[in-house]
Structures are given as C-alpha cells and as structure tokens.
Amino acid sequence: MDKKIILAPVNQDSTEKELFAPVREFPTERVVLLSSVEGTVKAEALVKRLEGLGIPASVTRVSGKSRWEAYFTAVADALDGLEKDRIIINISGADRISQCALTNAAHVNGIPAVAFIDGKLMMLPVLRLSVSSVLTARKMKILEELNREECYCPMEKLAKKTGMSLQLLSYHINGTLKSEGLARLELVETSMEKGRAKVCLSTMGRLLMRGYLKP
User: How far apart, in whole angstroms, are the C-alpha atoms of residue 95 and residue 213?
Assistant: First the structure.
C-alpha cells in the first residue's frame, strides 16, 4: 500500500486518539494539520509528537476566511499534483460545521475520508462526484457571469449578459426531470425579490469558480 498524506482538522477540543487513529491504520508519508486559531497550541504540540514518531507533519491555518472556503482551499492545495487516492481526510477532530465542510470537500473531490467513531476508525463512503462532467459550455457561461456580480435580479439582465433567452436560461438553472440544472447541482441559489426571480452563486458555486474543486 502506498503511503498516505493525512489531512486532519485540529481545535482545542481535538483528542490525540482521534487524530492519530488513521496514522496507526495506514502507512503515512506525512500529516497536515488544519488548525483553527484556537487549536494552534495543540497543533504545534501534535507536530512535535508526530515528528517524534518519525512522521513529518505541518500546520495549515484555516482562519481569516469562511471555514468552508478555508477547508476547500486546503484540500485543493494538498491535491495539487497528487493522485486523489494518496490523500485521506480525517474529520474526527473537527466541530460539526468543519466536519460538514471537510466531508463535502472529500466527496466533491473523490477523496477517501475517515472518522473515529465509538473507538473505531470508520471509512466513509467515497462519492466520486465530477461536477465538470455535467457542466456544459452554456452552464459554465452562466456561472462565469454570476462570478462577476453577486446576484442578478431580474433574470432578464442575466439573460442579456449571457445571450440566452429566458426560457433557455431557466432550463440551465432549474433543469428538468431528465437534466440537472445549476440549482439542483447546488451551484446557484434562486429566490424571489419583489415578484422577480433572483439568482446568485451558492457557496459551492463560488468555490468552483475560484478553483477549489478539482475535476
């Protein structure tokens, strides 16, 4: 088995047992600790413990921006130039919001994730989602235009910018029973404002457009 690079979040409540569980189960090349501000002291202590065991370790800060974006950025950076199967994300030492963000980052990037539950290390299902495979040129054009402005309301403005009719624009945003639209893919959010349809990039859509989701 190839050695793994393990990504693990750390905060002040993380336990050594949770964080070290995958290291005991998988041959480990190195560990990257994703640390909140509150977890800095603990993360630095864990680096020394890991290096004492002969395992290289480093700390990546996840503060200064939204946690979702911070974690997706960290995962994208770790993936740079590597095969996805070389990385394992250990969500055990995180709070619920961070666990959710990291699990989503693992799923959309097709990376294995593990969790330490009831004293056992559990492998989470790997969902090899390829958003890029369902994004047509027209859907990408819509996302690119939305990336230039926070929101479009009314939809007529977005239709004009993309050169699409309202009917075609609605098709790509809302989809049909047989075709997933951008809203169903959770890349955009739609709402009504003063009786007019409003569309914006979702958090996932912004992450995609900023290059934090790997195809």
Answer: 22
